[in-house]
Amino acid sequence: MANSTTRIVQIPSELSPVAVLGAADSNLRELEKAFPSVDISVHADCVKIVSRSARSEEDACKAEHALRKIVDCAYESPVDSYAVKRMLERDVLKGAEHNVRIDRIGHNGGVFGGLKSFGAGAGDGAGFGSASMESDFARDSADLMPSSEDAKRRAMSRKARMAKGVITFAGGNPVRAKTAGQTAYVQAMESNTVTFGIGPAGTGKTYLAVAKAVRALEDGRVRRIVLTRPAVEAGENLGFLPGTLNDKVDPYLRPLYDALSDMLGAPQLKRYMDENVVEVAPLAYMRGRTLNDAFVILDEAQNATVQQLKMFLTRLGFNTTMVITGDRTQVDLAVPKSGLASIENVLKDVKSIAFVHLNAQDVVRAELVGRIVEAYEAWETREADFRREKARNRKSLESPATEESPAAAESPETAESQSLESQNLERNSK
Fold it and tell me: Does the keyword Nucleotide-binding feature in the UniProt annotation (predicted)?
């Protein structure tokens, strides 16, 4: 091809191609729509961008920059076609209105370091992130650029892939299983489609499930995270709450927000929620949906009824993992009958469904929490033994009254007839 040039962008080995290219190469389709004058193709782990003529060189350069930007963002989380389309509309295509020069650079050199402005008011060689850059391109890209906090979390994400046993990072600290029970729980989530984590408070049921969901999203194995729980008050009437629907259900879902914020950071969590990559909703809003390409977590499942659990489990779609967590000893008063109490008897023989039971030895909160859980378990055992003994005593007291001897059961008439017979026998003998 005359006057054609080829640019190659390699997908790093530590990234999943799906996280960069999107499902069925949907991200590349968006690039092709934005830059119809260039040819874009994939060969193994390389993306080739070919300009057809000298006129298309500028578009080829922009396409390469956009693709490298997608690669850079994929270190933080998989990039979907909607995000690419929005980025192209707001950033790359709008940037054509400004005098912006894009230097072709390698990914390791920093994708944002090669973007320099030579327009009025910009310093010579000013970097993309410099304070002197005032173009709309820079301002509109602020939400997609990896900030210093995002860069740190991205580095931790890459480190998590290499560190054995580390699921992800929360506030700079590695999240991993710390007990034998937690290790079994994490392994069950990795090898089963549906996993039930049952155990007392403080055993990490919800936190580890959220960590696995974040890791699955980072690795490109799912496209979204769905977190839900029953909106049931903890044994007390809170009355009507003001505000919108989100305001009303926020108190019930706050523990899930906290865990996500620890692992993703508040700015990234907000972006994900705005783009519906992360969805947090009450259990009642799951009816009628099919959840595909998702990591779905049902928390506080002990407050779900049998019908609600059945409804939730039948939302399972393709390429979806479900985790259900709960504590059978913390059923709130408003729940007539907990579905978690009987679910294991119903599903224990179904393949790809696992039940993991955690106990006081798996509590990883303050040491006092473990002692509290053990004290309650001992008290519940004593109460159960007392109820069984009381039932046996009641049964033994009732048994003599219901099982009378044949002699005691004789009527007065029978006794009188026997007495007359004995008198006649004595008279005849005389």
Answer: yes
